[in-house]
Each structure stands twice: as C-alpha cells, then as structure tokens.
Specification:
Elements lengths: L1 E6 L4 E8 L2 E8 L5 E7 L2 E8 L6 E5 L5
Antiparallel strand pairs: 1-2, 2-3, 3-4, 4-5, 5-6
Length: about 70
C-alpha cells in the first residue's frame, strides 16, 4: 500500500509504502529539512540515504535504531 503520512506534532512527512500499517520503503522529510530515503523495519530507519539540509553531508548505509 502506498501513501503519505504527516505527523502534525513533529511536522514530519513520510511518503512511501506501508506493510501491516508500518512504514516499509519510502522517504521521510524532517522539520529541519533533513531527508531519509530507503527501507524501514518496524517503522524505523533501516538502510538507505540520509541527506542533511544544513550541509552537503550525505550518509549512505545501515542505521542502528533498534538498541
């Protein structure tokens, strides 16, 4: 299922696919302009590309958000 989800309290926007009601693969744009595109596991960033709005830095790889 494809869709867009906007979190009003944090002003984040997710556009992508959902599996069993959880983010699966897509792009999330944060209030500060940072953007993550890639795969999600249990609705958390898992593997992809993070672009930082206030610099030219880009991180590509895995994320450990399950600690």
């Amino acid at each position: 299922m494809e869709g867009t989800l906007k979190y009003e309290d944090s002003e984040e926007v997710y556009t992508g696919s959902f599996v069993d009601g959880q983010k699966a693969c897509g792009t999330i744009t944060y209030k500060n302009g940072d953007e993550f595109s890639g795969d999600f596991k249990n609705s958390r960033r898992f593997c992809g590309v993070m672009r930082f709005a206030n610099s030219s830095e880009i991180y590509q790889g895995e994320f450990n958000e399950f600690g």
